[in-house]
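Hi R.,

Here's the chain you asked about this morning:
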Amino acid sequence: MKTCKDCKNYKGNYCTELNNHAAPTDPKCEIFNPIKLVYLSGAITGKPNNNSEAFSKTENAIRTQSIRIINPLQLDHSECAVWSDYMREDIKALMDCDYIYMLKGYENSAGAKIELALAQAIGIKVIYE
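And here is the predicted structure, written out as tokens:
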């Protein structure tokens, strides 16, 4: 059976290739055991359809029984009028997460860079696509 430590992307206590394992309940893999919250972060503003295809594709690719995905595009933003309102709601959701998963192109997003800096500052583990 393949474990995190067998993976070329092993980074200390977790693997950056979430689907690279034969068993999502591998006890040696911190990200799979127990249930973890993973926040998706990436460029949204100015992207066609708010980059929903990339977020959805990533969410579907990494979801397992042991991983709950927090997708900011699916949060309740009904009270949000401007960018800063969206960021406040997204950051509230990020605060409960164990990991932040940075989608490709996050470097071009002011919001994603804020989320990354905050996650790093408070010890949320970072995974890069």
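One quick note: The radius of gyration is 15 Å.

Cheers,
M.
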